[in-house]
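Continuing from the previous page...

OK, I double-checked the sequence for Capsular biosynthesis protein against my notes and this is the correct one:
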Amino acid sequence: MKAIADAEKQRLIKQIIREGLLPNIALSLIATGLSDKGLEIAQLTLYNRMIHKFRRQISPNIEQVKANVEKRFAMSTVKQSDTIWVLWFQGIENAPEVVKKCYESLLKYCPQKKIVLLSEENLNNYISLPKYVEDKYQQGIISRTHYSDIVRTNLLTTHGGTWIDSTVLLTAQPDSFYFDSDLFLFQTLSPGSSGQAIPFSSWFITAQKPNRILLMTEELLYQYWKNNNRLMDYFTYHYFLKIASEYYPDEYSLIPPVSNETPQLLLNRLETPYSKPQWEFIKSQSPIHKVTYKNTSQNKGTYYQAIFKN
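Thanks. Re-ran it with the corrected sequence; updated structure tokens here:
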């Protein structure tokens, strides 16, 4: 979607300037502008800077983090679960039409699963977070978006099952490996057309046994928010996932390698003219589609209108 893509470009350039990286990529931007290739170079440059900063920040406490991971791993009672976790803080009755349609698609195509619909009313029945995390969330220091990163991780390390974002649309029953893998996340298998260098997507995560990658990610999140009152990077959660996967390569190697590009084909077309043959082809490529309720236009004849307004 153009509005979202433009906002992402602006965020990227602002962060590159803030990190003092503009001289590093100036020649590349002059040569390529903000083309796909230019975005790829810019994103990779920023990614390398930020992953280095995060590694350096956590290094003094990494041994304690690893010890906490091993202790929690040994005590974990997570086992095979048919639970799907879905969260809309304000309650599904107050959700946008896109979110409601996505939730209905889960009910339709996952009838054998236990779908737990979470909101602010019942969330504390399922999670247990440090008091300073809850306090900083209530104070607005931790945003709702980044609080949900902590929530999803705690749900999976405590109960197991599958986390699915409220803006994920199903158009068929997904294969069993999406739900039955010890650990599953969609991955960026190459930088891709958006220039995205972040290696994992966090909008669909399965954990069916105790997992050190998620446990370390959770511990790193707690450590970060214990010591910080602002977000160093919008993708902090994803950087911690990446760092955790480096410490536990054996567990990482077992994650099924499924690209996050195909499930986002619809997202990139929501505001474009609808084509039924093209939509049928997209559905044939993936039963899972990451979408958005933001910046959706009211123009007639678009994918958004055809899929979510009919």
